Amino acid sequence: MADGTARRRQLLMLAPFGAAIAVGAGFWEMLAGMNSGRFDPHDIHAPAQGRRVPAFDLPAQPPGQGFSSAELSAQRQPVLVNFFASWCVPCVVEGSALVGLSRRLPIWGIAYKDKPADAQGFVSRTGSPYRRLAADRSGMTAIDWGVSGVPESFLIAPGGLITWHIAGPLDEGTIEAGLLPALRKLA
Amino acid sequence: MRRLGPLLALVLTLVLTLAPLGARAVDDPSEMLANPQQEARAERIGAQLRCLVCQNESIEDSQADLARDLRRVVREHVAAGQSNRQVIAWMVQRYGNFIRLRPPFDLATLLLWGMPLLALLAGGTAAALGWRRAAASRPAPAPLSAAEHDRLQELMQPRAGSG
Predict the structure, then answer these.
(1) Does residue A31 share a domain with residue A78?
(2) Does residue A78 sit in helix, strand or coil?
(3) Per-residue model confidence as pLDDT tens digits over B30-44
(4) Which of B9, B50, B80, B152 is the most buried (most CB within 10 A)?
């Protein structure tokens, strides 16, 4: 009998160590994920993906004429909607990737909370990747899309369904790993 | 005078640590609603909504541009007579549950909300087990000796003449 209780007591002593090891492994997994990009605690997981584009009708952003959600939904090919601003540094970085991408699919730009002249200068400097341009001066349309900061891009399927979304700049990595697979699904 | 030193330090510490609790980023009076009850309600709602730029501040605390826009939306909706629940639902519809600083109770947050109860149960069980074991291992009292037994009998006899 004494042997049995001693074993049980030993096992009970091990329980806190087991719990500590499990918690440690969990934290290790989180930190490793943050390093490799698998896990991002700042990711907002805005629920735009899988929904239809919210209703909007935005005014012109020179040199573009502005566009509405109806026009966007009426497209017969996929469109990438890109929120940008001239005051946003990652948008500048993203510029060359967008220009390259604009040869594969039309990109519609929405200038977020920007002065028209500044946004126009920005577009001409980046090499005008945008097929169409509109201005969201109040930033309220961006809120309807769940935009938390520029740049953000949304892939719109014909008919107006948002099938892919990235809250951050597009570069070779995110285009290869995220956008192109999503685009192939629509083809 | 020397006695006042520590007291002064204490008061100063309290003031400095508690002061930020009252501070709000809404320092521009034009942002605030004219109706103080509505303004108070808007502040309560805003304090529950995460600023998506700074992420660990509420939109009431944050100086970020987006937080200011969201504060304005909250105030517009409150002024239009919407309930707290409606305003928060409007935000969650756009930004998901991440925008709520107090996560809702659902399947994904079951463990989070259930943790205090689980901890209480685990602690209670451990305490009860420990208690029982301690009680079991306590040596049983030695049986009474013959003299003690007689003395007890004597004590328990109703005393003659006392009734």
Answers:
(1) no
(2) coil
(3) 788 888 899 999 999
(4) B50
Quote the DSSP letter at residue A41: T
Peptide linkage before A151 cis (omega within 30 of 0): yes
- Which amino acid type is present at position A109? G
Q: Is residue A13 part of a domain?
A: yes
**Which tens digit of pLDDT belongs to each residue from B114-132?**
999 999 999 999 999 999 9
- Shortest Cα distance from A103 to chain B (angstroms)? 31
pTM comes to 0.75
Please compute, for residue A54, the number of CA atoms within 13 A of its CA located in the half-sphere on the CB side.
16
Given an 8 Å threshold on Cβ–Cβ distance, is A149 in contact with B70? no
Q: Looking at beta carbons, which residues of chain B come within 8 Å of A6?
A: none
**Gyration radius (Cα) of chain B, Å:** 32
Residue of B nearest to A140 (CA): B69
Same domain as A85, residue A177? yes
Give which of A44, A51, A145, A152 to mutate to test B binding, by max B Cβ within 10 Å: A44
Interface contact B66-A45, CB threshold 8 A:
no
Which backbone phi and psi does A80 adopt, to 5 degrees?
A: -100, 120
Nearest to A119 by CA among A165, A146, A88, A86: A86
Is-cis flag, bond preceding B139, omega within 30?
Answer: no
- Pairwise CA distance, residues A171 & A169, whole Å: 6
Site of tokens 């109703």: B158
Q: Mutate which of B54, B93, B98 to disrupt the A interface (most A C-beta within 10 Å)?
A: B98
Task: Count interface pairs A-B at CB distance under 8 A.
Answer: 40
Give the residue among A141, A134, A154, A136 at the shortest CA–CA distance from A47: A154
